[in-house]
Design goal:
The protein is of the alpha+beta class. Helices cover 66% and strands 8% of the residues. It is built from 12 helices and 5 strands. A hairpin with a 2-residue loop joins strand 2 and strand 3. The longest helix is centred in the C-terminal third of the chain and has 71 residues. The protein is elongated and about 150 Å long. The protein starts with a helix and ends with a helix.
């Protein structure tokens, strides 16, 4: 009997092996048409923006940030986990192998029943598991798009911090020049005081300005430390990791077309791809919920071991089939009578679909709001930069030269000279700030669009 038990168990295991896979044709695909589930098939705007960077140091910082940022790595790991999960939900449940040993064997015409083996496999209605797998793959696609959105946001943040760092480098340079000018004026004022032409108050005023300027240099260095720590945090480096001095870009005015930028954003923003994937996933889940109205099936095999009759009648006149084992098949079907629960599942899936569509509307509204805001701010920042570089800086330089000549000749006092120097210092600082603001807002615009801006400088004809 033990050899028969072993043979039956081996047969059940062999029968269970092929049904543990997916209940689909080998050539069929569970991914919806046009939908991908790998990183390679998802649009990567951060990589396109990275390749468009002309500043080699900025490009290296952004590349390292995209490679090492923990938030990005975590988002990609979640997407990969969701993709693996799709393979699980698309597989049939494990078959059940059971055994029944009779403590008191039932006596039949052909002999007592000793042991029964059972093999049972659950089978869903048609495409229930297919729909589950499709929904899971679409969810994985959405998570990959979320990871791309994270990469785009982190790259944009790193670039903004870099331009802030570049502003501080230029601000420090302007401040040190300002200190040098003040020291020169201090030497002149001391000479004037030594010869009896100037007053000691002039020397004290200039020295006080030098102290304030040197204090400003220390403040700039402290702010630089904070920015470097923020950049190093993004690229998963120690806060004290050295960053070479950043340089402000000097670009031309860029012509902006709101309609074209909006179309590019609709095509490139990963958030929209994620929203579309979630909408498609909810549509599939609605179909899956509706399938709950259909029954599921169970099929199985039974094998009962029967010993020959050992009673007097069975020995004297053995019946036909004496001691023959019993082989049978099983079948079952679920009866979905609790329709209230099934209807609630359909309604839940429908509401989730509505939520996904509203989420996409919210993303679109946010994109249009960001584009509209930047479309107004960028031209104003450019006009401010042109006003500072083309007019104010020239006036400030002429004012300093005039004040220096007047101070040496004795027609101006130290206060007049310091006022002129302050105007020049503020003008140079304002120019650096406007250059940084213009670069930052273009960076924000590329982040809002999801791709690098095409070089399209404004010409005189386009202005008119």
């Amino acid at each position: 009997m033990y050899s028969r038990i072993f043979l039956c168990l081996a047969t059940a295991a062999l029968l269970g092996a092929p049904v543990t896979g997916q209940q689909t044709d080998p050539g069929s695909s569970h991914s919806p048409q046009g939908e991908g589930t790998t990183v390679a098939s998802i649009v990567a705007p951060a990589d396109r923006i990275l390749e468009a960077q002309a500043d080699s140091q900025l490009k290296a910082i952004v590349a390292e940030t995209l490679d090492r940022n923990p938030g990005i790595a975590g988002a990609l790991a979640q997407a990969r986990a969701a993709e693996h999960r799709a393979s699980n939900v698309g597989a049939l449940p494990d078959p059940v192998v059971g055994i029944t040993a009779f403590l008191q064997s039932p006596e039949t015409r052909t002999g007592p029943q000793i042991l029964t083996l059972n093999f049972l496999q659950s089978l869903p209605w048609l495409s229930k598991f297919d729909l589950e797998e499709q929904a899971s793959l679409l969810n994985a696609t959405a998570l990959y798009s979320d990871a791309e959105a994270k990469r785009l946001a982190v790259a944009t943040e790193a670039r903004q911090l870099y331009y802030e760092l570049a502003f501080l480098a230029r601000h420090k340079e302007v401040t040190l020049d300002f200190v040098d000018h003040l020291r020169q004026h201090e030497e002149i004022s001391q000479s004037r005081y030594a010869t009896g032409i100037g007053a000691s108050q002039d020397v004290v005023k200039i020295q006080a300005e030098i102290t304030l300027a040197e204090s400003l240099v220390i403040d700039i260095d402290q702010r630089r430390i904070d920015l470097e720590a923020a950049i190093n945090d993004l690229r998963d480096r120690p806060a004290s990791t050295l960053i070479l001095p950043a340089v402000l870009p000097s670009g031309d005015e860029v012509a902006l077309d709101f309609g074209q930028l909006r179309e590019s954003a609709a095509r490139s923003r990963p958030e929209l791809a994620a929203a579309d994937a979630r909408i498609a996933a909810t549509e599939v889940r609605v179909k899956r919920a509706e399938k709950a109205f259909r029954p599921d099936f169970k099929v199985g095999l039974t094998y009962t071991f029967v010993d020959p009759r050992e009673d007097r009648a069975g020995i004297i006149s053995p019946p036909e089939g004496n001691g023959d084992d019993i082989f049978g098949i099983q079948g079952g079907v679920s009866v979905p009578i609790w329709r209230k629960r099934t209807k609630a599942g359909v309604e839940e899936a429908s509401e989730l679909g509505l939520a996904a569509r509203e989420a996409k509307r919210d993303v679109l509204a946010g994109i249009e709001s960001a584009l509209g805001d930047l479309m107004q701010r960028i031209p104003l920042t450019w006009r401010q930069l042109r006003l500072l570089e083309d007019i104010l800086i020239l006036q400030a330089e002429e004012s300093v030269q005039s004040a220096q000549y007047g101070y040496v000749s004795g027609t101006f006092n130290a206060l007049d000279l310091l006022d002129a120097e302050h105007v020049l210092f503020d003008a140079e600082t304002a120019i650096a700030r406007a250059q940084a603001d213009y670069a930052i807002r273009l960076t924000q615009l590329e982040g809002a669009v999801g791709e690098p801006l095409q070089p399209n400088p404004v010409t005189e004809s386009s202005k008119s």
